[in-house]
Amino acid sequence: MAHSALLVMDVQRSIVDRFDDDGGLLPRLAEAVGAARSVGLPVIHVVVGFRPGHPEVSPRNQVFNTLAGSGRFTGGDPGAEIHPDVAPRPDEVVVTKRRVSAFAGSDLDMVLRAGGIDHLVLSGIATSGVVLSTLRQAADLDYRLTVLADGCLDSDPEVHDVLTGKVFPRQAAVLSVAEWAKDLAAYRS
To answer: Is it true that the peptide bond before 126 is cis, omega within 30 degrees of 0?
Structure first.
């Protein structure tokens, strides 16, 4: 675990607000963040963000082209802030990405390699978005991977279940937040 980091991805106010979270994602993410902090594991927050005017967004990009001119996910947008339930501490890294994957348009790989991190624990919104894209790219970059199945959320529960039950296990260990926290506590003892 000494070379691991927890990635909390796209847990920003505007994104959280788009989901009906009856399942309690935020308390589980807070538990995961607390467990990581308790054993000194780095917590890295990944956010989507752009410069004013969204110059990084191509009109050909179906995911982000509707943002152009909106002011959303720029420096002054309160919706771009990390949700307070999992807010970073001053000493925690916040990585800004420009696309779906946490690696796309960011310095995440540099931060991880500089920290000697070779194992990523993935969580965030959405399972079929940032989690899937980051998992695929991280696997290609030879990171060891764990996905916190109930630390992820998707607008389509069936897609979430297929990804966490059938797709992700091909490249990652898939655990619940409680299982992972228990493993961390055992590691700490």
So the answer is: yes
Its CATH class, for the domain covering 4-45+82-188, is: alpha beta
Residues 6 or more apart whose Cβ sits within 8 Å of residue 102: 7, 9, 46, 95, 108, 130, 133, 134, 137
Identity of the amino acid at 133: S
Domain boundary assignment for the chain = 4-45+82-188
Q: CA dihedral in degrees (104, 125, 84, 74; nearest 10)?
A: 40
Measured between alpha carbons, how far is 157 from 135 in angstroms, rounded to an integer?
19
Query: How do residues 5-32 score in pLDDT, each as one tens digit?
Result: 999 999 999 999 998 776 799 999 999 9
